[in-house]
Design goal:
heterodimer; A: mainly alpha; 3 helices; B: alpha+beta; 4-stranded antiparallel beta sheet; two-stranded antiparallel sheet; rod-shaped
């Protein structure tokens, strides 16, 4: 033990350098661990955001489908309108009178 | 020769009666039908506009989310850069040089260094030779000031 201590005392510069090196290595390891922890947190945030993005895409898709449905409904309304106009063309006078009566009847 | 005409059957007392010819009344009915359907179409178009507005809001949300993802990913890249820097702190270099004594070229020291260089400091060994003097070796320790 004394021999070892004497050797270390003789090689004090190497000991100091080794201690400094160990200190820096530990410091770097600690810093790296901290940075990795930060990375994990950011990755978790990104996952949450990607989930939200996916949900947003689903909503946009459903809204697009709703738009297609509305366009189809408008088409149907226009077709009905066309049919109605055709019916009016062939409606007898009594039918026209009935239309006015039904539309403007006072209740 | 007959003359067909229509009039509203249910009328208020003392209300004037307007007589329309069959052609005009047919046109009126057509216009009214068109008006009814146009109202329905407007309703549908209003729903469609609202749908577009919702879609726009969702697209904006999506854009914000994408921006946030890009921002976080940039942060991750920066962190990884820092990790890479701190993971490889040690570089080994060899140097050969001449050192004068003051500003004279008399008996210059010729030396060679083997240095282990960390970001903040360097450590290494030096071997030197000098004319008319014995050669020697030593340890070099340098701190990076700037």
């Amino acid at each position: 033990m004394i021999k070892v201590l004497n050797y270390l005392r003789e090689q004090y510069l190497a000991v100091i350098i080794t201690v400094i090196w160990i200190f820096f290595t530990l410091h770097t390891q600690q810093k790296t661990a901290l940075l990795l922890e930060q990375t994990k947190k950011l990755e978790a945030k990104i996952l949450v955001l990607e989930e939200k993005d996916h949900e947003s895409s689903i909503i946009i898709d459903s809204l697009s489908r709703v738009d297609t449905l509305i366009v189809n409904r408008i088409k149907i309304i226009k077709e009905k309108e066309y049919v109605q106009i055709r019916i009016i063309d062939s409606l007898p006078v009594s039918g026209l009178q009935k239309y006015f009566t039904d539309r403007y009847s006072e209740k | 020769m007959g003359f067909k005409s229509t009039s509203q059957i249910v009328t208020q007392k003392n209300d004037s009666i307007v007589t329309l010819s069959e052609t005009v009344s047919r046109k009126v009915v057509s216009d009214l039908v068109r008006y009814d359907f146009a109202k329905n179409i407007i309703k549908e178009q209003e729903i469609r506009i609202k749908n577009y507005q919702n879609k726009e809001i969702e697209f904006k949300n999506k854009l914000d989310i994408k921006d946030s993802i890009i921002f976080h990913q940039k942060s991750i890249i920066d962190i990884h850069k820092d990790i890479i820097k701190s993971k490889n702190p040690l570089e080994i270099h060899g140097y050969v040089g001449v050192q004068s004594i003051q500003f004279k070229l008399v008996e210059p020291i010729l030396y060679t260094n083997l240095m282990f260089e960390f970001p903040k400091f360097s450590i290494g060994a030096q071997y030197y030779v000098q004319p008319n003097n014995p050669s020697g070796y030593g340890i070099v320790l340098e701190y990076n000031l700037f």
